[in-house]
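Input (structure):
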């Protein structure tokens, strides 16, 4: 399926399976693990929430990216880039009133959001997508 957003955006096709949601650099929504071909490259992007500590996630993602790069190499592929972005939930404040005094409550969020993007050449798109899905199983 060819996707044309407007003349300023690069054309790219999608072969994907949706689940949760994020925006790709082409200006539209991707969900779950997305896999598509773009200018001869296998592109896989994913987003997941994890309840692990930020320290555990950083350590595990470092290992996962090293292993994924190695996997691409042993399959005679070329890594364009593999990136991960980790966002830790922050503090929030709830203010409420039932018509009298305003009540204030601090809310802490412990969910960590992980976003991954991989662009590789000369590796089968479906195999690359399966590797990313396998990698993300550790964070569920």
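Output (sequence):
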């Amino acid at each position: 399926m060819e996707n044309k957003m407007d003349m300023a955006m690069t054309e790219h096709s999608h072969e994907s399976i949706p689940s949760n949601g994020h925006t790709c650099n082409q200006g539209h929504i991707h969900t779950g693990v997305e896999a598509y071909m773009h200018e001869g490259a296998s592109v896989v992007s994913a987003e997941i929430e994890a309840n692990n500590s930020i320290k555990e996630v950083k350590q595990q993602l470092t290992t996962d990216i090293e292993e994924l790069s190695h996997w691409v190499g042993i399959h005679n592929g070329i890594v364009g880039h593999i990136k991960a972005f980790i966002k830790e939930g922050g503090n929030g404040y709830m203010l409420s009133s039932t018509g009298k005094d305003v009540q204030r409550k601090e809310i802490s969020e412990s969910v960590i959001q992980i976003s991954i993007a991989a662009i590789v050449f000369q590796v089968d798109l479906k195999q690359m997508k399966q590797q990313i899905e396998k990698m993300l199983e550790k964070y569920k």
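Notes: The longest helix spans residues 54-74. Residues 1-31 have pLDDT under 50 and may be disordered.
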